[in-house]
Amino acid sequence: MAKNSAILNNNKRKRLAAKYADKRAALKAMTKDMNLSMEERFNAQLKLAELPRNSSKTRVRNRCEVSGRPRGYYRKVKMSRIALRDLASQGLIPGMTKSSW
Known about the structure:
Blueprint: H1 4-32, H2 38-50, E1 73-74, E2 79-80, H3 81-89
Antiparallel strand pairs: 1-2
């Protein structure tokens, strides 16, 4: 189980990323638009830098929904490999059985 503070910080990052997504995308589009003047693009870059760091989507860490584990994460099921195996062994995931040979 991951530290509770790490999970809460990651949830805060997710919330901020969703909140600022539109504003961040608009400013990024302005910085890449070559039809705008150099000064306008630079001002857009400065406004982008003023946004909170944690509002960037790349700061969000994929964590297991069950245990909060950051490593061995399967995006399709939003779970770590360990939690996935435990739930599959208990028969809680439809269509999945534990492999053994």
